[in-house]
Amino acid sequence: MTPLRTTRPRRLRTLAASGIAALALGVSALAVPGALTSAQGTVGTADVFHPQLLKVDTPTRAAKTRLSKLGLDLTEHAGHDYVEVVVHSPLDLVALTAGGFTYDVEIEDMLLREAQNNRANAEYAAEMAELGLRSALPSGRTSYRTLADYNADMDELAKKRTLVKKFAMPRPSLDGRTIYGVEIGSDVRRPSTGRPTMVLMGAHHAREWPSAELAMEFATDLVQSYGKNRRITRLLDRARVVVVPVVNVDGFELSRTDGAAVDLREVDNGGTVTILGTPGQAYKRKNCRIVDGQDTPDGSCRLTLNSNGGFGLGTDLNRNYGGFWGGPGAAGTLPDPSSDRVAGLPDPTYRGAAPFSEPETQNVRDLIAGRQVTMMISNHTFSNLVLRPNGVNPTTIAPDGIPVGNAPDEEGLKRLGKRMTDQNGYRNIHGWELYDTTGTTEDWSYNATGGYGYTFEIGPDEFHPPFEQVVGFYRGTGKYAGKGNREAYLIALEHTVDTRFHGTLRAKQKLPKGTVLTLSKKFRTPTWEDSFADGVSSSITVPRSGRFSWVVNPSTRPVVRPRTFQAYDDAPYKSQTFVGGPTTPVVGTADHEFTVPATADLLKVDLTWATPDDLDLEIYRKTASGELEEVGGSGNAPATVESAQIVDAAPGTYVLRVVNYASVTPTYDLTAALFDSVTKRTKGKVERYTLTCSRGGKVLGRTSVLIDRGQTKALNLATCRR
Ligand code: 0X9
Ligand code: ZN
Question: Which intervals hold domain Peptidase M14 (predicted)?
Answer without folding.
Answer: 143-488
